[in-house]
Write a structure and sequence with these properties.
23 helices; 9-stranded mixed sheet; binds ligand C2E; 6-stranded mixed sheet; binds calcium ion; alpha/beta
Length: about 625
């Protein structure tokens, strides 16, 4: 396949070649009129005009963006004919004039033939299949002419002309190689040899132009490798690079005949199917293709003696002329890929409008969260916790957001967004100030909550500013905390993996000032046991999903019993959350849980309500 730019370059040469033929060609008509007879020259020129018209029509017809691959190939074939014919016509006029020694026309013929050769080697330099045969057919008659002069200078000129054509060929070949190299580098990724992002964007643009006017469809796959960074970090970039090359090879081999493949950067690849008639397109086929590709990627790799496994998250999107209108399809396939990531990776997600709504809502929430953090729409609520004798011994601070337009937003919805955008740091800082200030105020009023739990995101735990903030504020507010009073930071277990070492160091730092740690949603992550060993925790919170299932399935009950006995072995306090019924409470008590929290007792209450109901404080009038 030729490069897009080759075609564009060649198209421009058509007009030049027409000009360079018709103007000097006309001089031959005048010469014919004076010396050799008008008819042959005029006939020749008439032919030249016809060929030029043919060339001009090719020039007009060309539109690299709208033409399909096969249309381009056909156009190129015609262009080759055009160039062969128009250059050959210069050989014809050469032969017609070379005999006229008496009027010195042979000088002119020799010069124009040399001129045509130089022209061919420069105008057609991008295309070896054109300039090589054309140069040879132009120079051959000249060399033969010199040879047949049968004089000593004729022989010298024969040799010189052969040297001349060799130099032209050599120079054109060199330039051609440079140009092709340049094109190659501009369009390919060095590591994998696949097309690069730039080529892909150009391809998408021309593809869009083609689809716009047809009933054809393509589908696009955005492929992002899962946890590639971990391989890079743990085994080194060398192995990472080799893995990327292997993955590229596999995707390429799997899709070569039917798709265009590019590496967008890092561990992200994109595949675009060939253009398919709407009636022949089926969602199922596209999905099956994506699933098969996924299993090809998933198969084991052996690199430098390491057996590696990697999966991918794939976004799949069908593109018709409708989706082209919005110009959003690249963003949309991105959305689908991210959804695959957030649904646990190693899967294929097909883009649909609901997904895009979800993303829009995300964006709205993200924007609003910025404003909200600076307004007064975030509140901290407190949910009471009880001991085995059902006395209130503590509370968990839970953030609430009431928005004028969006209504009440659940933390389950906005906390992940805050986490993914980094806003969690600001939000967490707000919650920290609010809770510390309130706990301090309650202490000042003489009521002492024993366990005061705050949810902390892992992003906070690895943030130096946050740590310093905690240290400073802790020293400021709780210099004289009561003996039995403890501040608990709850951290969700499945987020530890990536920054384990740093998190542990920072947890120990805060432990030194008196804060204890609790593993939230305990039991839902993968390697709970590991964590218990490595993290400086004092408490686990059994996830509410287990509690909810507990009185329905024996399995869940067994699960909780196991978790509790493990935690007991580690000497941890056990808190159960999400208790909604008396039975659940009784079972958990029997299993020797220490602390209980849930709607059975109460939900999270606003500051004032909590104060009145549980701390016996009356509102300030
Ligand atoms: P979580 O830490 O597991 O908090 C417990 C959630 O369970 C709370 O939901 C609470 O209202 C709810 N809950 C309490 N008792 C019951 C019950 O009996 N039944 C049921 N079905 N649910 C109960 P909420 O307040 O919506 O919080 C959701 C999550 O948002 C929290 O889960 C926590 O992970 C996160 N979150 C809340 N506030 C903060 C915060 O200030 N910072 C951070 N980083 N995360 C927070
Ligand atoms: Ca919690
Ligand atoms: Ca929880």
């Amino acid at each position: 396949m030729k490069h897009q730019k080759d075609y564009n370059f060649l198209q421009k040469q058509i007009l030049l070649m027409i000009g360079l033929s018709l103007i000097p060609g006309f001089i031959y008509v005048i010469l014919g009129w004076f010396f050799t007879g008008l008819l042959p020259a005029a006939l020749w020129y008439g032919g030249l005009i016809l060929v030029s018209l043919y060339g001009f029509s090719l020039y007009k017809k060309f539109n690299s963006k709208k033409m399909t691959k096969s249309e381009l190939a056909a156009w190129y074939k015609h262009l080759t004919y055009f160039m062969y014919i128009i250059f050959s016509s210069w050989s014809v006029i050469f032969v017609l004039n070379i005999g006229y020694h008496e009027h010195n026309l042979h000088y002119i013929a020799i010069f124009t033939q040399l001129g045509a050769s130089v022209t061919a080697s420069t105008l057609l330099v991008s295309d070896r299949r054109m300039f090589v045969p054309i140069l040879l057919t132009l120079m051959l008659p000249l060399s033969l002419y010199f040879l047949f002069l049968d004089t000593w200078f004729g022989y010298v000129l024969t040799i010189f002309s052969l040297i001349f054509v060799s130099v032209l060929l050599y120079a054109a070949n060199n330039t051609n190689r440079l140009i092709q190299n340049n094109y190659y580098q501009a369009q390919h990724d060095i590591l994998t040899g696949l097309f690069n992002r730039r080529y892909f964007m150009e391809y998408i643009e021309s593809m869009s132009e083609r689809l716009m006017n047809t009933k054809k469809v393509v589908y696009m796959l955005l492929i992002d490798l899962d946890h590639f960074k971990t391989i890079n970090d743990s085994l080194g970039h060398d192995i990472g690079d080799k893995l990327l090359q292997e993955v590229s090879k596999r995707i390429d081999a799997f899709s070569k005949e039917t798709h265009v493949l590019a590496r967008l950067g890092g561990d992200e690849f994109v595949l675009v199917s060939q253009e398919i008639e709407e009636k022949d397109y089926s969602d199922e086929d596209a999905y099956a293709f994506a699933m098969n590709l996924l299993s090809v990627i998933r198969a084991q790799y052996t690199i430098d003696g390491h057996n590696l496994h990697i999966s991918a998250s794939i976004g799949l999107h069908e593109i018709t002329h409708f989706s082209l209108d919005t110009k959003n399809f690249i963003r949309e396939v991105d959305i689908a890929m991210y959804e695959a990531k957030s649904q646990g990776r190693d899967g294929v997600i097909v883009f649909n409008k609901d997904l895009s709504k979800k993303v829009e809502r995300h964006l709205v929430i993200e924007q609003k969260l910025h404003q909200t953090l600076h307004g007064n729409k975030l509140h901290v609520y407190y949910q009471p916790q009880f001991n085995r004798s059902q006395e209130m011994v503590g509370c968990e601070a839970l953030v609430r957001w009431f928005d004028d337009e969006l209504g009440t937003l659940a933390p389950d919805e906005f906390i992940p967004i805050a986490e993914s955008t980094g806003l969690i740091l600001e939000l967490g800082s707000y919650v920290l100030h609010e809770t510390f200030r309130n706990l301090h105020a309650w202490n000042e009023k003489g009521v002492f909550i024993e366990y005061f739990s705050i949810n902390i995101s892992i992003r906070q735990m690895i943030d130096e500013t946050f740590l310093e903030e905690v240290e400073v504020m802790y020293a400021y507010y709780f210099a004289k905390l009561k003996e039995n009073q403890t501040i608990v930071f709850e951290i969700t277990e499945h987020v530890f993996a990536e920054n384990m070492a740093l998190a542990v160091r920072n947890m120990n730092r805060l432990k030194d000032i008196g804060i204890i740690f609790s593993i939230d949603d305990f039991g839902t992550g993968y390697s709970a046991l590991n964590y218990l060993q490595e993290l400086p925790v004092s408490e686990v919170k059994i996830d509410k999903s287990f509690v909810a299932e507990m009185d329905k399935s024996k399995n869940s009950k067994n699960m909780i019993a196991t978790i509790i006995s493990i935690a007991k072995n580690f000497n941890l306090t056990i808190v159960a959350e999400g208790i909604e019924t008396e039975e659940q409470l009784e079972i958990l008590k029997a299993l020797e849980c220490d602390t209980f929290q849930g709607f059975y007792f109460d939900q999270a209450l606003a500051h004032d309500a909590f104060e009145q109901k549980y701390l016996g404080l009356s509102p300030i009038a």
